Amino acid sequence: MRILMLLAALLSPVPGLAGAAEVNGCSGALVRTQTSTPDDPALVLTNGHCYEGAWPVPGEVLVDRPSHRLIRLLDDAGRPAAAVHAQRAAYVTMTGTDVALYRLGTTYRRLEHDHQVRPLTLAAARPAPGTRIKVLSGGLKKVFTCAIDRLAYRVLESGYVTEDVLRYTKACRTGPGSSGSPVVDVKSGQVIGINNTSNRDGGACTQDNPCEMDRDGVITKHKSIAYGTQTYWLTTCLTTGNRLDLDRPGCLLPRPDPQRA
User: Fold this and answer.
1) pLDDT tens digit string along 135-185?
2) What is the DSSP letter of 257?
3) Which of 154, 159, 165, 235 lies closest to 196 in space, CA to CA?
4) Cα gap 30→232, rounded to integer Å
5) What is the chain's alpha carbon radius of gyration, rounded to the nearest angstrom?
6) pTM listed for this prediction
7) Fewest Cβ atoms nearer than 10 Å: which of 80, 159, 238, 259?
8) Kindly report the CA angle at 8 between 5 and 12, in degrees rounded to 5?
9) pLDDT digits 0-9 by tens, 60-83
10) Under a CB-based contact definition with an 8 Å cutoff, are residues 50 and 207 in contact?
């Protein structure tokens, strides 16, 4: 009986998932910037640790890599609306942030015309503590609702460091399958972050047990608390035609190390 109830819950419609995506065990989202046009190549955003290749090591940035990643875009009820393939992994890193940005071989206009799928818009400003949020998990077919508790100076996890991190209030108990979920500002409807980790067991700074470090180097851990990385950084580096320009003045994303090329 319990198994039947769980299956029914997974198959039941979950309103509010429009724009979300399922990315091979992770979550993601179809996204645009405020200046993207309908005929621009569409972009899908998820975590760097959801990349189909080997995880980028600390300090590594991958740019414009070939990809044929299968991505399932969802409708508002969480049902599959379109199965699309990535054309390129435009940007992947787990340094400072936890981002994988894919470019599809189709446009926003074509996706809306053929599948009635529309993108979520990336906010261009840093969010503030207290902001009411929803975490849209395409992988779990679930919507988490809470608020930003604070912005953590640094979050450390098994050798990786993320910066200026969204820490959620306890109501958002995300977990496996929610990695890469867009974090949406309830008021504006715009994406302000990407869900990427949570402290599962109360451990400190190990995999699946991230810890926080403040400006003075003091380490704290918070069991069952989840985190998301910033997304407004992306808007500082995307230009006309959804092209990524890491040399653009004001671009906040980490750049590839020439020594690793």
Assistant:
1) 999 999 999 999 999 999 999 999 999 999 999 999 999 989 999 999 999
2) P
3) 165
4) 15
5) 17
6) 0.92
7) 259
8) 140
9) 999 999 999 999 999 999 999 999
10) no
